[in-house]
Structures are given as C-alpha cells and as structure tokens.
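Section 3.1: Structural characterization of target chains.
Under the original work plan, the team committed to producing a structural model for every single-chain target entering the pipeline before any wet-lab resources were allocated. The record below documents one such target. The sequence was received from the expression subgroup and is listed exactly as submitted; it comprises 168 residues.
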Amino acid sequence: MRSQELYLKAASTVNLLKEKGLTISSAESCTGGMFSSYVTSVSGVSDIFEMGITSYSCKVKNEMLGVKAETLKKFGAVSENTAREMAENIRKKANSDIGVAVTGVAGPAASEGHPMGYVFIAVADKNRCETKLLNIEPRDREFVRQSACISLFETIENFVKQDDYGTV
C-alpha cells in the first residue's frame, strides 16, 4: 500500500514542478535511489528531472557531489550540513532549478552514533535551502526509506508553493 502512496506523492510533485516550469535533481544516500525511482515512474518526468546520484560513501559525496571533506569530517555523512551541501551541489552540477538530498540511517544498525530512522532531507534553489531532521519510527529499513521519500516529496511541494515561482 505504501508504494501507491509514494507513486501518488511523486506524481503530485512532478505535476507541480511541470506546472511551475521547474527542473529538479536529486542526491540520495540512505534511500538508495528510491526517490529517483518513484519520480521517474511518472509519465512525462523527462520535462523536469535532470539527474539523480546515489552516494553511499563519503568519497562519492565528496568527489561527485562536492560535499567538503571538512564537512564530512566535522559533522559526518549523516548531518544537516552534509544534506545542505548535497542539495545545493546537485542543483549546481545538473543546472536544475531545485536540488534535493536525503542522508541518514536506514538501519537496521546505528551509524555515526545515530539511531535507525535519523534522517536529514534538504531542498535547495539558487536563493535558499530548507533542511529538516526526520526521526522516523524505526520499524524496518524499508519503512525508513519510504518515509524519508514521502517527507521529501511533501517538503518539495511546500518549498515550491511558498516561493514566488510563476506558472509557465
């Protein structure tokens, strides 16, 4: 049943972005490409989706996504700072209007001293970046990943609706 909810959230987000004439790119870690998978399951998504990178290692976060080595060392891969840099940098790398990121602990074990379900999401455009800490009920790994994606879709929609993006 959750897969249907995810598809509906993805379709709603894709349609809003199309309506506003905005493009999006994603940088994912703990969701393992789930966000990109659901976005690209929506017909007509090629109008708005530029690229997605799944980056589990700090090396890839640094080398491919441009997260500063200092950020990763000081705050860790699971941090607000890392999520912010992932979102801002994927937006720039893809030359998209919006960049989104998700990094956290899907479980079942803790990571970097954080419990399962501890996830940061970020949504950025050229002027601002909104980050959120999610403390997702740690039912199981799939539940954490799905919940993070649902929250990310909702955050994107709220982010777009609160700004003065025109309709094309």
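The domain at 2-161 is CATH 3.90.950.20 (Maf protein).
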